Recover the amino acids of this structure.
């Protein structure tokens, strides 16, 4: 199983539980830093792209997040959505 994740680097004096301005966010694969980016959103998209392009399984705790990103946000392999995703998509479209 290939290990892939995001590493957030923060300042030592930052005591906030949520880090809106990290020093950097890195995409890490098998303990190696693949790329370093300034924003979480950029790092998430790069990590998603690696997972999708390499045909890897989504990390089990984040399967719904990645399926939502793939099928709703990016419209990849949208086809027939599972009921949970279809309901979420419908709810989001009402507020759009």
């Amino acid at each position: 199983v290939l290990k892939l994740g995001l590493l957030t680097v923060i300042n030592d004096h930052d005591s906030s539980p949520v880090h809106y301005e990290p020093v950097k966010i890195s995409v890490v694969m098998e303990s190696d830093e693949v790329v370093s980016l300034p924003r979480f959103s950029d790092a998430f998209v790069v990590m998603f792209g690696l997972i999708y392009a390499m045909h890897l399984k989504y990390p089990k705790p984040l399967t719904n997040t990645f399926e939502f990103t793939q099928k709703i946000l990016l419209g990849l392999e949208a086809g027939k959505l599972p009921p949970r995703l279809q309901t979420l998509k419908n709810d989001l479209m009402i507020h759009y």
